[in-house]
Amino acid sequence: MKRRDFIKTTTAGGASIVVAPGANISFIQAGPSTITIEPFPIFELSPWLYMQFMEPLGVTDTSVEAAWDHQTDKWREDVVGITRELAPGMIRWGGIFSAYYRWKEAVGPRDQRKPMVNITWNGIESNQIGTAEFVDFCRQVGADPLMAVNFESDEFAGYATTKKGDIRKADTKEAAEWVDYCNNPSNKLRIRHGFKDPLPIKMWQLGNETSYGRDKFDIEKAAIKTIEFAQAVRKADPSIKLIGWGDSGWARRMIEVAGENIDFIAFHHMFNPGQNIKNSPLRDNEYRKDPAGTWEILMDAYKIHEKKINDIRGEVSSYNMPLALTECHYSIPGRNRCEVLSSWAAGVSYARMMNLHERNGDLLKIATLADFCGTRWQVNAIMIPVPSGKAFMMPVAKIMALYRKYSGKEYLKVSGVPAGLDITASRTGNTIYLHVVNTSRFRQAATYLKVPNMTINSAKAFELSADPEFEILSAANDPLVPKERIININEPLIFTAASVTAVELTVE
Asked: Could you give the CA distance from residue 364 to residue 352 in angstroms, rounded to a whole number?
């Protein structure tokens, strides 16, 4: 089907969520199904399932530097404002960057801070944004900070020392001093820097992608080092929570050796869902030539992610160790990590990934689906136009913001879901939330809702929908704003083709 024909089959701006009395919906399916929502909680959903990941990416993608106003020495107001809308429960600082980051270079008087070479991402980091600035940003947007420490450069020589001989490797003593600087009310250095009150960071990650590549720690040494770091930093603050590295088959052994010293196991997943598909349109700008093939691959992409999660669940389940997915996104070849990720088709696909995270919320307690912000990479949640322009959300951020705003604290079971819909449910008190993804490009879906032994007093829907080929390119003329609709619960609900909807029910 050609693009112009596809547009004719969809309703501009999305169809109404309620079918008018007497409307003929036989073109949708033989008859509306009934979705049953069991009101009894199964497990708690963590607010950290909707976290973001901030890493200084040098000249590759001027992420952190672009979000900072160097003329006023504060965060850009548009970045702060849109991040409040995104409302991440947690923001992580670090990534590969943490393997050569020396925290003391980025604290204290600005004119005394030492710039550094960004070894992986190239360029010079000014270090005008450091611990205090990161904590300040988290405070402004209501997120819990997560810090990744320099874990002896993961024993990788290329991170430990620059080609000019600058030592970048940091030990347990430096990590413990960092925790004390942040959390000890009496820390003299922080107070001398003008911060009488602590800069509290209660979550810390030990090791980042430590199992990736050669010439790094092996699992045995990494586990021993994890114990050493954990014991050192907990002397500074026994109340902190620690994340140990467990990807690439390391999780079970890390728990066996160091499990008493850590609270979470970390893993990452960046993948190309079209990698094993011959002539996949998910590359460069080929996706624009084959929207149907692109949609099909993206709708099935969650299966690859599901396998990754199931594999690591198998390693940790007998220990009941919570999981931390501290980096995750599609990694598709093409300019700036492929512009298909600016399309609404990618947004709907990411919603299926988000539902998958919620289904695994019994063990998965920290998760993300994007790199937080930047000027170029399409894997970012927030794009920052340079040298000027207003920051805006990418499709993945639209999904994360919708879910974050309309999610309950406890996961619920859903049954009777018709083909073509992907649905999760949660509850807080007398409010039940549904996250509904219509995975069809063309077909609407009709359904009733039922909560056994409870009465639904009111219902609303908040729908994101657009032509799947629509691409977000700026803050202007963006149709991806949630459309609020009142639901008549006695009539079937209509979920627009290629839509993501949060449904809010009040019950008694």
From this structure: 16
pTM of the model: 0.92
Sign of CA dihedral 174, 200, 126, 83: positive
Domain count of the fold of the chain = 2
54/150 same-domain check: yes
Q: How many CA atoms lie within 13 A of 353 on its CB side?
A: 30
Work out the pLDDT band at 479, boundaries 50, 70, 90.
Answer: confident
- In angstroms, rounded to a whole number, what is the distance separating the alpha carbons of residues 182 and 200? 5
What six digits make up the tokens of 321? Answer: 């160790």
Please tell me the distance from the alpha carbon of residue 400 to that of residue 381, in angstroms, as a whole number.
9
Q: Among 371, 406, 441, which residue terminates a domain?
A: 406
Query: Please, what is the Cα angle at 268 between 262 and 272, to 5 degrees?
Result: 170
pLDDT at 15: 35
pLDDT band at 388 (very low <50, low <70, confident <90, very high): confident
Question: What count of other Cβ atoms lies within 10 Å of the Cβ of residue 7?
Answer: 11
Q: What is the pLDDT of residues 69-103, one digit of tens each?
A: 999 999 999 999 999 999 999 999 999 999 999 99
pLDDT digits (tens, 9 = 90+) for 22-46: 333 333 444 689 999 999 999 999 9
User: Is the previous residue joined to 387 through a cis bond, with omega within 30 degrees of 0?
Assistant: yes
Pairing between strand 33-37 and 414-415?
antiparallel
Regarding whether 254 and 115 lie in a shared domain, the answer is yes
Rounded CA-CA distance 238/12 in Å is 55
CATH of the domain at 425: 2.60.40.1180
